[in-house]
Amino acid sequence: MFIPVSQLYQYKPEEHKKVTERWKTKEGKLNYEHIIKLIREGAGKHFLQSDWENGKFGDLLDDFTDLRGFEFWKENINFPPNVDNFVVLDFSYSNFWHSTFKNMTYHSDCYFGRFYNCQFVKSNFHFAYFMGCTFENCSFEDVDFIQHCLFDNCIFINTKFNNYFFPDRLFENCKFTSSVELNDPSFIPIDKNWKLEFNLKNLEGFYISIREAYKDGGAHDKEWNYYYKAKHASTRYNNKGFIDKYTKLIFNELLIGYGEKPTNCLKVSVFILILFAFLYMFVGLGFAQQDSSVSPTKEMVNYDINISYFIKNIFNPNYYWQCFKDFSNFLYFSIVTFTTVGYGDITLINPFGRFLSALEMLLGVTLIGAWVATFFRKLIR
Q1: High-pLDDT (> 70) share of the chain, %
Q2: Which of 81-85, 135-139, 216-220 has the lowest mean pLDDT?
Q3: Which residues lie below 8 Å from residue 291, measured CB to CB, with a gap of 6+?
Q4: Largest CA distance in the chain
Q5: DSSP secondary-structure letter at 315?
Q6: In this structure, what are the phi and psi dihedrals at residue 233, rounded to the nearest 5 degrees?
Q7: Could you tell me where the DSSP H helices lie in the chain?
Q8: How far is CA 133 from the centre of its chain?
Q9: Which of 264-268, 308-312, 320-324 has the lowest mean pLDDT?
Q10: Which domains are seen in the chain, by residue range?
């Protein structure tokens, strides 16, 4: 469950103010220009260590990993390939504004940072931990989250994830607005140098975390869409065996769509109506014929599988017209049987027909009840 940043025990307003204002001093501004120049040139592993050990930063930084409160403003940095750019740095309380980072390799933490209108393109994140951060109008494109990356209790607004990979989990206790868009994750890294694969058993948990994020953000349509995706993934990758998988597939997914797709019941019902109408054509039914001049009679209609007769009439339009009229009558009987109305104007003529009608009535009662329950559940929610 998402917790407002101000209520997190890790958030320290005094520290936030202190590390932000230090960059506004004369010493802070001079060192800021030096550091941002190093970053634009590609940074590198522990790129501040030498200057810090030589006392260049004075008392500005606590150590050579300390970039708390740092600010990126309108930066467009294309990092050199195969270089570790940000390794074991602390970007807590930092601001990233209107910036683009390409080919970045990020191995750092960021607590309570703010990312606004930023793009991360063809970048790798390793052991990257984002806690209580806000991402607004951002995008992650062709990005790999390798080895224990996590967005924890972060807020996402109008942010997009497209073509991204992660091996285990990625979001926990986050909050998404309805404007957040996530494509399904890639099952292999975008960077082909990494020989990893996504564990499909983790897909259910990933969708559940997304569902909870949309729930906390009030985006209920997307929340229930990811509820369906989580159930869908559970049926395929987290089932208890063959029987469990196909039981859920038929009864939970196909029939009611895990309670999210009431139209599934209608589609299955239409299929059953047509199927049983076709079967009744070959089982046979008796149709009441009412004539005022004579006593009521009953006409038996029973189709046989006669290939030679079909070939003889293959170009006879009257044959097809008669088949259509008969089928419409059988479909009518299938509908009144499915709905258990049973007017009595059409009757069964053999035990096979009675068996089919009993089976259809059982299916009809079940599907109508399932449709009503699913429809009103979704409507009320």
Answers
A1: 97
A2: 81-85
A3: 297
A4: 118
A5: T
A6: -70, -35
A7: 13-21, 26-40, 49-53, 203-216, 220-237, 242-247, 263-283, 307-312, 317-338, 351-380
A8: 23
A9: 308-312
A10: 5-198 (no CATH), 202-238 (no CATH), 263-380 (1.10.287.70)
